[in-house]
Write a structure and sequence with these properties.
- The chain is an all-alpha fold.
- It contains 13 helices and two strands.
- Helices cover about 70% and strands about 5% of the residues.
- β1 and β2 (about 130-135) form a beta hairpin.
- It is globular, with a radius of gyration of 18 Å.
- The chain starts with a helix and ends with a helix.
C-alpha cells in the first residue's frame, strides 16, 4: 500500500494537470520527417510526460532506500529532458546530437558504476549457473549494458503505450525472480501504470526521451547490483530486438544498399505492412511477457 500511495496515486491524479500545463505552454511532439505518415496526428501531443513518473519514481526509490537506482532515474531522465527541451526549443524532432547524448550516458554510467563498485568481474550464464569471467573488461561490458539498454528502450518508444508496456512485461517478471533487491522496478512500474492511463492510443501525452531513456537504464543498474545481467537482457527481449533491427537495417544499407525492413525500428516495419498500432503493442508486449515468464520459470525450476 505504501508503494501505491507514493507512486501510482499521485501520478494518476497529477497527469491531467501536467497535460493541461504542457498544452498551455505548447510543449508538443514533433514528428520526424522520415517517420510513417500514420503518425501525423501525433504532432502537437504534449511530450516530456516522463518527467512526472521519473520524479515520483526517483523520489520513492530514495525514500525506500534504493539510492543508486534513484540516481540512475535522475541522471538518465535529465539527459532525456535536455534532449526533449532542445527539440521543443528548436521545433524539430531531434534535440541533442547522437554523440552528445551518448557521451552523457557513458558519463552517467561511470558515475553509477563507481557508486555500485561491482565486486564481481564476470557474468553468470542463466540456467546453467556458469560464470564467464571478464576481468578488467567487466566495466566496459557494464557501461555498454547501461547505455545499450537505455537506448534500446528509447528506440522502442515509437508507438502509443509500447515502451511502457514492454517495460512492465520486463520489470514485473524480473522482480518476481530477484525479489526485494529489485523493488525499484516495482516503484517505477507503478508510476508507469498511471502513465499508461494517458498514453494508450490515442495518447494524451508522450513520455519523450525524458522517460524512455530511463527505463532501460534502471533495468541495467538493477541487473548489475544483483549480478543478473544476462537475465535482464533475456527479459528485455523486445528492447533488444528493436535495437538489433536498427543495427541490421543500417548495416545492410551501408554495405549492400538494401533495406531488410520497410523501416526500422521494427515496430514501424509492421505498421507499414498494415498492422494496427494497437495490435503491434499487444503482440510485442505479449512476446516480451512470454519470454520473461519462461526465463522466470527456467531460473526458478532449474
Amino acid at each position: 500500500m505504501k508503494y501505491f500511495l507514493a507512486t501510482f496515486l499521485p501520478c494518476v491524479l497529477l497527469y491531467p494537470l501536467l497535460i493541461k500545463l504542457f498544452k498551455t505552454l505548447h510543449v508538443g511532439q514533433f514528428i520526424r520527417e522520415e517517420g510513417p505518415d500514420l503518425h501525423g496526428y501525433k504532432a502537437g501531443t504534449p511530450t516530456m510526460g516522463g518527467i512526472l513518473f521519473a520524479i515520483f519514481g526517483a523520489t520513492s526509490c530514495f525514500i525506500f532506500g534504493y539510492h543508486i537506482d534513484a540516481l540512475a532515474i535522475i541522471l538518465f531522465s535529465a539527459i532525456g529532458f535536455l534532449d526533449d527541451l532542445l527539440s521543443v526549443i528548436k521545433k524539430r524532432s531531434l534535440g541533442l546530437r547522437a554523440w552528445q547524448k551518448f557521451s552523457l550516458q557513458v558519463l552517467s554510467a561511470i558515475v553509477l558504476l563507481s557508486l555500485i563498485k561491482p565486486s564481481n568481474a564476470g557474468i553468470v550464464i542463466p540456467f546453467i549457473e556458469k560464470r564467464l569471467e571478464l576481468g578488467v573488461f567487466y566495466w566496459v561490458f557494464a557501461i555498454l549494458l547501461i547505455t545499450g539498454l537505455s537506448n534500446a528502450s528509447n528506440l522502442t518508444d515509437g508507438l502509443d503505450g509500447l515502451a511502457a508496456s514492454v517495460f512492465l512485461t520486463t520489470a514485473i517478471p524480473y522482480w518476481f525472480l530477484i525479489g526485494k533487491h529489485a523493488d525499484s522496478l516495482i516503484l517505477l512500474s507503478l508510476c508507469l501504470m498511471a502513465f499508461l492511463f494517458y498514453n494508450i492510443k490515442p495518447a494524451k501525452i508522450i513520455m519523450g526521451d525524458t522517460g524512455s531513456l530511463t527505463l532501460g537504464a534502471l533495468i541495467a543498474i538493477v541487473s548489475i547490483r544483483t549480478s543478473t545481467e544476462m537475465i535482464a537482457l533475456l527479459c528485455s527481449s523486445v528492447f533488444i530486438i528493436e535495437t538489433l533491427s536498427v543495427i541490421i537495417q543500417v548495416s545492410s544499407y551501408k554495405l549492400f544498399k538494401k533495406r531488410v525492413f520497410k523501416m526500422s525500428p521494427i515496430h514501424h516495419h509492421f505498421e507499414l505492412i498494415g498492422w494496427r498500432e494497437e495490435r503491434i503493442v499487444q503482440i510485442f508486449s505479449l512476446v516480451n511477457l512470454t519470454i520473461s515468464v519462461f526465463v522466470l520459470l527456467g531460473e526458478k525450476l532449474g
